[in-house]
Write a structure and sequence with these properties.
With 311 residues, this protein is an alpha/beta fold. The protein has a domain at 2-175 and 291-310: Vaccinia Virus protein VP39 (Rossmann fold, 3-Layer(aba) Sandwich), CATH 3.40.50.150. Helix content is 26%, strand content 14%. 42% of the residues are buried.
């Protein structure tokens, strides 16, 4: 499949899609550090630009459009014209690319909280919007830990299929490979299993990005201040999506420090030779914003399967 990637970030999803055998034909992100990271590790298909400056006619055709969009404009008080809400510029751009380019499929990722906005009215409106653009749409909440990723990361995946391809959805959500208790399937991969091979910060090593936040870990009952259980998947790797605020790195399970950039990337299943560019906070943010590479590969394998139907 030929992929158009929007809001690509450092390229976690795109790298996974490529590893499965798909081809990225065009990608975009506004963050210079993320674009530099993408070019260094994934490919030169990416352009660094504000989407408001991108002409959709300049984007090449593709089989699939992928990307995530924020949902600031989706609120109970604003359920009528979300496509036109200025706060939804990125959603509107994603929608317009789908409507104009008419790819066979699209895949969009979002936080699980979108399901409860407006008591479900937001998701219904999103489904209706893309229906008007000519697509059958389904969505599913997934936990990345169920697919062997060493992280409790719940996300909503929207999949659209162009209506002329038939009523039956050709894309099948991948079957989970792991479970919490290990009954019938392998048990969730723990954070200890995932990062025990990573060097400690300060070790003499060739591993890239082997450093991290010196912000002291103090146990408190809120995000990034809770104790990390070594026998469970990591808590969700976080990001500061607006580029503001301090680093929000997850505590190491030893309780003495935060995860390094390398360890955070390992939890997000980036390869050990994947190099992040930019200042420390930027690197953490790029990792936290990414789709785990392994989950991208799993989605990519399904695209390869259905792509064969068009050969």
């Amino acid at each position: 499949m030929e992929i158009i990637s929007l809001f690509s970030g450092a390229g976690g999803l795109d790298l996974g899609l490529k590893l499965a055998g798909n081809r990225i034909v065009w990608a975009n992100d506004i963050d210079r550090d993320a674009v530099a990271t993408y070019r260094l590790n994934v490919g030169n298909e990416i352009t660094c630009a504000d989407i408001r400056d991108v002409a959709i006619g300049d984007i090449p055709d593709g089989d699939v459009v992928v990307g995530g969009f924020p949902c600031q404009g989706f609120s109970r008080a604003n359920l009528r014209r979300k496509v036109d809400d200025e706060r939804n510029a990125m959603y509107r751009f994603f929608y317009e690319v789908i409507r104009v380019k008419q790819p066979r499929f699209f895949i969009a990722e979002n936080v699980k909280g979108i399901l409860s906005l407006g008591h479900g009215a937001v998701v219904r409106q999103i489904m209706a919007d893309f229906g008007c653009a000519g697509y059958h749409v389904v969505h599913r909440k997934v936990n990345m830990a169920d697919y062997g990723i060493p992280q409790h990361r719940e996300r909503v995946i929207f999949v659209g299929q162009r209506v002329d391809l038939g009523e039956k959805m050709l894309f099948e959500f991948p079957v989970s490979t792991h479970c919490r208790d290990g009954i019938g399937k392998p048990k969730w991969v723990s954070i200890k299993e995932a990062i025990e091979g990573c060097p400690a910060p300060g070790d003499t090593t060739n591993d890239p990005n082997n450093y991290g936040s010196a912000y002291k870990f103090v146990t408190r009952n809120f995000t990034a201040h809770r104790v990390t259980d070594p026998e469970k998947p990591s808590p969700t790797i976080l990001a500061r999506g607006n580029g503001k605020g301090g680093v929000c790195a997850i505590p190491h399970y030893n309780g003495e420090r935060r995860l390094t950039i390398r360890e955070s990337a390992t939890v997000q299943t980036f390869p050990p030779d994947f190099v992040f560019t930019g200042k420390m906070g930027s690197c953490y943010r790029q990792i936290g914003n990414a789709v785990p590479v392994e989950f991208g590969r799993i989605l990519g394998e399904e695209l390869i399967r259905i792509g064969k139907l068009f050969l």
